[in-house]
Predict the structure of Homoserine dehydrogenase.
Amino acid sequence: MPELTAPAAQDVAPATEGLTVALLGGGTVGSQVARILTEDAAVLHDRVGAPLTLGGIAVRTLDAERDWQADPARYTRDAEALVDGADIVVELMGGIEPARSLILRALEAGTAVVTGNKALLAAHGAELYEAASRSGAQLSFEASVAGAIPILRPLRDSLSGDTVHRVMGIANGTTNFILDRMDAEGASFEEALAEAQRLGYAEADPTADVGGLDAAAKAAILATLAFGSAYTLDQVSVEGITGITAEDNAAAADAGYVVKLLAIAERGTAEDGTQGAVLRVHPTLIPREHPLASVRGAFNAVFVEAENAGELMFYGPGAGGAPTASAVMGDVVAIAQRIVRGGPARLRTPVAALPALDPAEARTSSLVVLRVADQPGVLRRVAAVFEQHAVSIETLRQVRDDDAEIPGASLRLITHRARQRDLDAVVADLTALDAVHEVASVLRVEGN
Ligand code: NDP
Ligand code: HSE
């Protein structure tokens, strides 16, 4: 069973000397961590109770131009030597290798690690948590989800006396920026993506962002902290925003909703009664008055529903060098304080062993837009398909389709919550119905 933090058994012996921080990566985030360690050294010394020394910065290109330049003598290509001489390792290289091997090397030696590497955690988290658990080393990763926003520590620590039912996050700034432009200015997906790239939000290769994989990695990490079990990327159902059209936005706006790419992790019960967690990322309609609807541009927000706390929302910048470095430094200082002051290591996170359920078990409502023949009996036949799969219709609106190639009408139906597999069956049967020219869009609805 993976443990998510160090075991509680042994106390950490107080350190009398200063602590050496090895920085693996000196790019967008790493250079800001180096800056804070250098410029705020006196404040950090005061908070930690001992000096934090930058042991070195592992990079690929020693003389590359950087957002913030450390003493040139600090840069090295020998990451392993840095790890071996460190009290705390900060991994900000990104990618799987060599980040994975270097983190394992540190953890196996009992050295604490801080990382912002969501791709690595979502793919190999269980292996890393187990290595940390075996040696008693701390593994912290606040920066891996939603940049500067403190969300993982609140989920793991502040809510540890409560039961988290659901976490819904706008966890990818690039896609929120694109969807916001499409909604506010009527921009096409392509126009909004080009603007995101021009402004530096989207990567040159934006596939992981617009395809939903970046948000899915964050969904796996959020679920791991919220439910105390280790989840991986392959347990998240993923749908990106590339298929979202101006028509989808118009239909959403007409019904009082806005489209957001949400990373959702929630407790659920499968049809056979198994309790588990359902993890999914997809474009989602949320009511305009929902707090998540007000998250504009490239900002992130995470909405948490807990048994006793009720509804909480965490909001802020989800990316960027300095904001993400703030989250990294929060982890570094917490670890350093514990090493310096001694005392009990952080308590073991209770492991709930909540299995990941098939995403088809998710219960959600949907907006279904159909292009239909405008003839007697069509509504009855459409409604019969919903009835056959026990999916209840909450609202229905018909609009004329005067400009469509095939004359007819558009039906916009919003369903009550139903199992995803039943909604999928409804859509498959509607597609085969001859009175239905086209299932124009199916968008899931949350928050109402
Ligand atoms: P960058 O690409 O800007 O920086 C990566 C750094 O790692 C560079 O300094 C690079 O060296 C170094 N590096 C990469 N591979 C190697 C290697 N094989 N050996 C030695 N050094 C290597 O990445 P970011 O700073 O943007 O991201 C770092 C991590 O933080 C990632 O995991 C990312 O997902 C995460 N993160 C980033 C956010 C952001 O806003 N940027 C937000 C939240 C999380 P060189 O400089 O020589 O090329
Ligand atoms: N590409 C990510 C985003 C960066 O757009 O939010 C932060 O993980």
User: Anything to note?
Assistant: The first strand starts at residue 11 and ends at 12.
